[in-house]
Design goal:
single chain, 15 helices, alpha/beta, about 20% strand
Length: about 450
């Protein structure tokens, strides 16, 4: 038994959203009880105590669109790379990286990403992987890192025809094998989806192969209308918009996650809503790639389950929150935009998306939920109460405020010290493989 207490408690429940001096009792990998520190210490005398030291205790973060394979891109300069648009960025940077990744570099990229996730309080990650230099076994290499570092993960491999039919078929096999493996796992720490790149790099033949090999019970994780080029390709080749094509190919549904959705219209939003398909917004990536601002506020208003991701740009979900908040205000020239929608995406949408793949309730501190808890080093200089929690988080905290991270009942970081991990050794291994990757790319 373990108690995390002596702090301001944010539960994300309607019944008791906030406690000034709250605590949460953990038993194994679940939450046993939530209440005041005084009552929990009395009821569970002798329990190990983790002192929040007056900080904020809250549910750990969930990232519903991540790219582990991009971890070694930081600081990378590729000879001749001078992008003029989104397709140049994809082919010149990201596809170049993934074509050179070895299995070991994929594993080390995962270790680097998961360590940063832990430090930023992220304990559940939906990753969309690509390593066309080493496809077979790549998802299993990522899972190895996830198990080593204790982060809950839903994985998929990015199927694409961009490097030929043989690699497309190998990508389908990697997904299918890992999905079967994940479905047989009973830890509730690993899940899988059928990953796809995007409509413009997927033929009908490859889509049909993916559908025929996809085990029951899972959906697809696919980029949708991230660039205008994706929409133009679909219109020119198939005479229809992207969501219509995905509908016709039976890709949409409650287990399918569509990333970006920048160039979608009201008709497509209705299809997303009516099929129960999920959407994830990645504001920094959309801005950084100069792809445009998606109609996310409208998507949310349609009642589509929408979450917030990072697309590999950061592992700090509060950074993504801050950027999304100002992006939509700026884009819509409306200072009232995004106040409610973005925190709903981050704190409600991400949890709802995650719980379509994981059994135990996530993103909430309540009895029976997963024991995923973080402590933020934050002492408000203004009054803090149930009605202004999100404002304090938005303007007063960042991922670097996280001092303690617990996932599935296991303490991964305490007082900013990683537990059971030789951090210097991990970073040394990552640096070694990053140097090899860079040399390979610029050979």
């Amino acid at each position: 038994m373990r108690i995390v207490g002596n702090g301001r408690l944010v539960t994300r429940t309607e019944e008791m959203p906030y406690l000034e001096n709250g605590a949460v009792a953990l038993e194994g990998n679940v939450i046993k009880k939530v209440g005041t520190l005084e009552e929990l210490k009395k009821e569970f005398a002798g329990a190990e105590f983790i002192d929040a030291k007056g900080g904020v205790i809250m549910p750990a973060f969930i990232n519903v669109h991540e790219h582990i394979y991009s971890a070694m891109a930081r600081g990378l300069s590729i000879n001749g790379y001078n992008p003029k648009g989104f397709l140049d960025i994809l082919d010149g940077m990201w596809w170049t990286i993934d074509r050179h990744l070895s299995l070991e570099q994929t594993r080390q990229s995962a270790r680097a990403t998961y360590l940063d996730c832990i430090k930023n309080g992220v304990t559940t990650v939906f990753d969309h992987h690509a390593s066309f230099g080493a496809i077979s076994g790549s998802l299993f290499a990522i899972e190895e890192a996830a198990k080593e570092l204790g982060v809950r993960s839903c994985l998929c491999y990015e199927i694409s025809d961009r490097d030929g039919k043989d690699k497309a078929r190998a990508s389908v096999r990697e997904n299918a094998e890992f999905i079967r493996h994940a479905l047989a796992d009973d830890t509730d720490m690993i899940a899988a989806m059928m990953g796809m790149h995007a409509s413009f790099t997927l033929s009908n033949e490859t889509m049909e192969l993916a559908a025929s090999e996809k085990p029951e019970g899972v959906g697809y994780h696919i980029h949708v209308a991230e660039g205008i080029e994706d929409l133009h390709d679909c219109l020119n080749k198939y005479g229809k918009r992207i969501i219509d094509r995905l509908m016709d190919c039976d890709i949409l549904g409650e287990k399918t996650l569509t990333a970006h959705c920048i160039y979608v219209n009201p008709h497509e939003m209705e299809l997303l809503r009516d099929t129960g398909t999920m959407v994830v917004h990645n504001p920094e990536s959309n801005m950084g790639n100069a792809c445009g601002c998606p109609p996310t506020m409208e998507i949310v208003k349609y009642g589509i389950l929408t979450g917030l991701g990072t697309d590999g740009y950061t592992h700090d979900m509060l950074e993504s929150y801050k950027v999304a908040n100002i992006l939509h205000k700026h884009h819509l020239c409306n200072p009232n935009a995004a106040w409610a929608e973005v925190p709903k995406m981050l704190f409600e949408g991400n949890a709802a998306i995650a719980n379509r793949y994981f059994k135990r309730p996530l993103g909430v501190l309540k009895e029976g939920a997963a024991a995923d808890v973080i402590v933020m080093d934050y002492n408000p200089l203004t009054p803090m109460h149930a009605s202004n929690i999100n404002s304090h988080i938005l303007f007063g905290m960042s991922g670097h405020s996280v001092v303690t991270t617990i996932c599935n009942g296991k303490v991964l970081m305490k007082d900013r010290e990683l537990i059971g991990v030789d951090e210097e050794k991990v970073w040394a291994d990552v640096r070694e493989e990053a140097a090899k990757l860079w040399k390979s790319i610029n050979a």
